[in-house]
UniProtKB/TrEMBL annotation, chain A:
A Gene Ontology term for the protein's cellular component: glycine cleavage complex
Cofactors required: (R)-lipoate
Location in or out of the cell: Mitochondrion
Name of the protein in question: Glycine cleavage system H protein
Modified-residue entries (N6-lipoyllysine), positions: K110
Keyword Mitochondrion: yes
Residues forming coiled coils: none
Biological processes per GO annotation: glycine decarboxylation via glycine cleavage system
Keyword Transit peptide: yes
TrEMBL record, chain B:
Membrane-spanning intervals of the chain: none
Name of the featured protein: BPL/LPL catalytic domain-containing protein
Organism: Ciona intestinalis
Family designation: Belongs to the LplA family.
SUPFAM superfamilies: Class II aaRS and biotin synthetases
Amino acid sequence: MASARLVNAVASKAFKSIQYSRVGFLSISQSNGLLKSFKPHCRRIHTTQLLSDKLFTKDHEWVSIENGVATFGITDYAQEKLGEVVYCELPEVGVECDKDDVIAVVESVKAASDIFAPVSGEVTKANESLVTSPGLINASPEDSAWIAKIKMSNDSDTDGLLNESDYKKLIVSLE
Amino acid sequence: MLLRCMSNYYVLLNGIRCFSSKQCIVYTTSVTDPFYNLAFEEWMFRKVDFTKTNCLFIWRSQPSVVIGRHQNPWKECRVNDTISDEINLCRRSSGGGAVYHDLGNLNFTFFNEKSEYNTKRNLKLITRGLRETWPFLDVDVNRRDDIILNKRYKISGTAARLGRRSCYHHCTLLVSTNKSNLTKYLHPNKLNLTSIATDSVRSTVRNLSDEDNTINCKNVSNAVTQVYVRQFSGAKYYEIDTKSEQLLTGVTEIAKELLQWEWVYGKTPKFTYEFDYYHEKSEQTFPITLEVKEGIVSNITVQ
């Protein structure tokens, strides 16, 4: 009897944890807003799920790929190293670029730093809001301060990019 | 914690080993055309690997106004005066504000691999050089990376450019510059220009030769070079002709790009210019707004 209760208790715990992870998983594809009302242990599941979302270059750029279009910007680590960004020089829409070409330049604390194309292709959009508010790069580097979108011409360009956990390891090794 | 200490210790050791094993090259030049000297910087930045060798380039210019990469020349200086007086107007590829060069001003360019980028270290090296030769000089580096004389006068302005593996930091040093020219050409325009371009920060300046009239570009250059080469295991000195296409393949092309209207003026971030136009016949004043994109008027509004 006692052992049966124990089995049930363990089973219900296991069931609960499955439920949480399923909820966490489902809510990502449905709505991010929902997550705010969740308890902390559910959010933890949410972050793990997001880990694989972005790719990173060794030059501290992030890339997010959807339907063959790569959106990229600089990482939080990069913006912190740069300091206050005062100007952002964007690529022109329609320009063809090769992976590793200088595609943008950001100026901070008297230094002009090159930003490199993480993939090859055609620039389809540039984030014009960075022209008037370059400080967005410091405030929201990996979200609203995306720099440009590139329609990829070579799918294998993502091969050399790092996933989030490898990128985090790279940062730790640099500190 | 222990691990952290050990890793710091390792970094420290690594830093020393790395530094002492490196060679350095000091370049000087008799070329005083700023377009070619800026082109040489760009050439070095693009082509040279600085993992084993660090370089210092010491140079001077004929009278020139040099603005930062993202600045508006019409806002920073008297463009018409520079043209009529045949003063060079250059846009450099580094950031920062507008400066004035002439033969009384020394420029130092420090080339490093990117991981060694450190403007403070370079500037302190210059102040150390100055103090070792002229111990009475009160020179220091401030938060904005300016070298300050007597706690209040700016004698040096800094700017930098960072690429994937290489970087350079260059700075000016006022030794015996014509201050009235500096004030004249760098005089900001009072025109009503609205722009997103990087603005210069105005400062009161002074020459090192005002402190001691034996100080000149040559002995300052020597003083800084002495301190610079001390950091390395070996030093080489070259007097380089920055116009030599034979030595520096492609440098002429870079200089041409720097000279082009599209770079000097056309690269200006878009801006608007508001002014009143007085029409004599009708005796009326019309407020006018010009919108300027890539240096060219793209729209005119008359109210």
